[in-house]
Amino acid sequence: MHAPSLPDRSLDAYAAVTERDRLERLRSLAGTLSDASVLHVNSTATGGGVAELLRSIVPVCNDLGIDTDWLVMDADDDFFEVTKAIHNGLQGSAEPLTAEMEAIYRAVTDRNAAEVEKRYDLVVAHDPQPLGMLERLAERLPNAPIVWRCHVDLTDPVDEYLAFVSAYADRIDHAVFSRAAYAAIDAPETSVVYPSIDPVTEKNRALDAAELATERDRLDPLSFDAPVVTQVSRFDPWKDQFGTLEAYRRARETVPGLQLVLAGGMAGDDPEGLELYEQVASEAVDDPDVHVLTDLPDTTVNALQRLSDVVVQKSLREGFGLVVSEALWKRTPVVGSTVGGIPLQVEDGRNGYLVEPDDAAAAGDRIVTLFEDDERRTEFGANAREHVRERFLLPRQLEDLLGVFVEALEPDS
């Protein structure tokens, strides 16, 4: 287990984007938790929404006076092959779960659990990867409630994978899901907490004209003098970059000079990423107007989402899809699929459009609709930012999460 480096973060940094009452409620909740020590555990410090969330949540909690640590599991490729299969199985498609896979999973989770030495009052395990640690942690920390924060879409899991994960449910005191529809694991208590973006990070902060100009140059030969549609997401089969390519090709028949950007990073716990990136790049290699980009700096992603005319998120499954709120926060309308948390963020006909996940033709048509009306795109952009301000910024999520912690530690309060 290792502790990632963390940025400095103060609650005061959010005063410009969050109402004062919410900040005061956060300080009140933090006061209730001032004597508690909290541990967050997940499987990677880089790539993906969970790592991004923890990189903000943990330092803000410490700023509030809550003793909070974040530990990342140490594991090899064999373990991550297994946990990616678990992730895929929970989202509805996977290879059979073998005894060898189960043995690899248990060996790595047991080893990591043995490395937790500090005493904690509350443990938060994120997603399926650390679930195997919970039995040992419960033995070592018998008075510490365990919260399982599930970020995965559990609406249509493969039975054997759901059973494998459910076997650890008796170690969970409180389960937190991103949507009520995901609550397929029994736990004594459950809550729904929507994820959020952090508006003060490099990826989401305001950029001045000089910074935007610098990032435009960095993205050359992509030209923002011609129309641009973008999808930002990990290279993962569930994100359906191939479907987005199909939607772009349909839209290009009507929108002259249309360019497509497929940008994404490689999560440290996802062994499929590089292979899929190479497949997508190969599919697009003959089209100079398709730009397949990986591991861009956060500031460049920020600029790309601001400078693009339309953002697409055509996922087939999606736990939540924070990249949707990222784009909406920057006043860029989104064409997204009707899966997971995307419909919570995209208000169809108000800040973007929703299409069925397997309907690339409809996605292409909606892209065209947005390009045909500049005034509509501007109106959608204004609606988009306000929707995210109200529902999907970090202080709101943190208030919900601290409420769960108080309930777990003081169930009779």
From TrEMBL:
It holds the Pfam family Glycos_transf_1. Residues 40-183 form the Trehalose synthase N-terminal domain. This is Glycosyl transferase family 1. It comes from Natronobacterium lacisalsi AJ5. GO terms for biological process: glucose metabolic process. InterPro entries: Glyco_trans_1 (IPR001296), Trehalose_Metab_GTase (IPR052078), TreT_GT1 (IPR049438). Residues 225-386 form the Glycosyl transferase family domain. GO terms for molecular function: glycosyltransferase activity. Keywords: Carbohydrate metabolism, Glucose metabolism, Glycosyltransferase, Transferase. The keyword Cell membrane does not apply. Homodimer. The keyword Transcription does not apply. Belongs to the glycosyltransferase group 1 family. Glycosyltransferase 4 subfamily.
